[in-house]
Specification:
The protein is of the alpha/beta class and 224 residues long. The chain is built from 9 helices and 6 strands; from the N terminus they run H-H-E-H-E-H-H-E-E-H-E-H-E-H-H. The termini are far apart. It comes from Winogradskyella alexanderae.
């Protein structure tokens, strides 16, 4: 695994790349990709960072694991490649977007447009074996991505962290809420959403209100 990551992030995270746990992680990922089909493809593992520089990051959405079906994962949490059927969680994200901002339901599920505006779409684990959810958890990725969150929290302010579901909410301990914003709700998965824990959260409009309040430009959440 070559760490093909935007230079702005490399400057912030170089210490992580030099640590023993990360070298072990690289060895593990290389071995997995050599033996099995894994997602996303190698050149897209760090896509979240390459579409959203450290300086530009102003919103963070935290996912858990890449999609593990063929052609889905593109390195951005909850996002799929153009032309791929929308997974259930992404459908519910778009339904909430539609209800919150009165947008047309998007045709494509590729969220690169959000990332290019400063939304870091960060999975806690950046790789996965095909058809085996969670197969690359507890191998070092979580240490790395927790340190990404900590670096953003330490070096920036007026950021909006969107914590969707129990797993993401555990990351709140890494965030200083006296200088950054946290919005919490249920996970957009059908299991959570259908029990009333997702719809109506209005996180998209609330995020833009917080950004404007801080003197920052709002996110254009539309995906035309």
């Amino acid at each position: 695994m070559d760490v093909k990551i935007d230079q702005s992030w490399r400057a912030v995270l170089q210490e992580e790349f030099d640590k023993p746990y990360f070298k072990d992680l690289v060895h593990f990922v290389k071995s997995e990709y050599a033996k099995f089909t894994c997602y996303p493809k190698g050149s897209e593992i760090f896509n979240a960072f390459n579409h959203c520089s450290f300086q530009d990051t102003k919103v963070v959405i935290i996912g858990q694991d890449p999609y593990h079906g063929p052609g889905q994962a593109n390195g951005l949490c909850f996002s799929v490649k153009n032309g791929i059927q929308h997974p259930p969680s992404l459908k519910n994200i778009f339904l909430e977007l539609q209800n919150d901002l009165n947008f047309t339901y998007p045709r494509n599920g590729n969220l690169e447009k959000w990332a290019d505006q400063g939304v870091l779409l960060l999975n806690a684990t950046l790789t996965v074996r095909a058809h085996e959810a969670g197969s690359h958890q507890n191998k070092g990725w979580e240490i790395f991505t927790d340190n990404v969150i900590s670096a953003l929290n330490t070096k920036k302010e007026n950021m909006v962290f969107l914590l969707w579901g129990g797993y993401a909410k555990k990351k709140k301990k890494l965030i200083d809420i006296t200088k950054n914003f946290v919005l919490e709700t249920g996970h957009p998965s059908p299991l959570s959403a259908n029990r009333g824990y997702w719809f109506g959260n209005k996180h998209f409009s609330k995020t833009n209100s917080l950004l404007r309040q801080a003197g920052l430009s709002a996110i254009d959440w539309s995906l035309k």
